[in-house]
Amino acid sequence: MQTLKVVPDITLKQLNSKQQTELAQTLHAWRIQPNGTEGYRTAEVTLGGVDTTQLSSKTMEARAVPGLYFIGEVADVTGWLGGYNFQWAWSSAWACAQAL
């Protein structure tokens, strides 16, 4: 991987074509290597759950199993931190309850 050259503060439009290409290649090749984890104890976001394409968006009912409903964080929905997961839990429960 190339080392990024230090340049004075300039805007992207001030770079010539070759410099823009070099910058794009450097950014594209950039890899982040995590050096550890605190595990699920402090996890903020996890992925996975019931595939939402398999659920009715109006009722949260499983398309393949009538009468089976999934709400809240059991569904594969990821969002921003800050209470949005609570809103999703309440909203999906409301949608489900309206169908019953």
Automatic annotation (TrEMBL):
| UniProt domain RsdA/BaiN/AoA(So)-like Rossmann fold-like: residue ranges | 39-98
InterPro entries associated with the record: BaiN-like, FAD/NAD-bd_sf, RsdA/BaiN/AoA(So)_Rossmann
User: In this record, what's one Pfam family?
Assistant: HI0933_like
Q: Which domain of life is it from?
A: Bacteria
Name of this chain's protein: Flavoprotein, HI0933 family
Organism for this UniProt entry? Enterobacter agglomerans
